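User: Can you predict the 3D structure for this chain?
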Amino acid sequence: MPSVIDTTGKVVRDVETPAIFEKDYSDKGHTVFRAVYREFAGARAGTASTKKRDEVSGGGRKPWKQKGTGRARQGSIRSPQWRHGGVVFGPQPRTFVTGLNKKERRLAFVVALADRFKNGAVTLLDTDGFAIDKTAAFAALLFGSAKAAKTGPKTLVVFERNEPAGEKIARVSGNLQKVEVTHDGALDVKDVLRYERLVFTTAAYDALTGSLAGDGGHK
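Assistant: Here is the predicted structure, written as structure tokens:
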């Protein structure tokens, strides 16, 4: 049951955990693994490239005659055994993108969030009248004091993408090493699992739970 805090850090109320996050997902760990693997693999550039023997310039002339020199026969100075020669079985440009259907992606996201709810790692922030414009004040809101922010848990603050307070939150949190900020549309499975604590604005929480409860699901 996550707590809702106001802009002073005071708990104003508790909200019920959505039923979708209270189910037993203990056998869905592999789905989460596949989703995280997909996200990291999809971010790889896949641009590593080496030249094969026929792609290296030069080497058109036979270095020495076939017989009579006492040396091993050679056909080109661009053969793989030569310095500056072609590379055997070297990397070529490729894509690392892997597939995962929409239902599995949605399930992995729900499982990751359910784990955070189960461990009490979700807090809601009521941003009505949000007027914090100092980093120290925002650190005190999240951690109790600016000093505690240096050793506190890694925190991800999630705001609703069209929320007026989102820009302010991103600005005042810029110098907090333990805090990252994103919007609900960019939140993914690896983000949920990477941070020790998730702080949703009430607008982001309503939008997120609404999308998961509906037919749209998550990206």
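The longest strand covers residues 155-159. Residues 149 and 176 are 7 Å apart (CA to CA).
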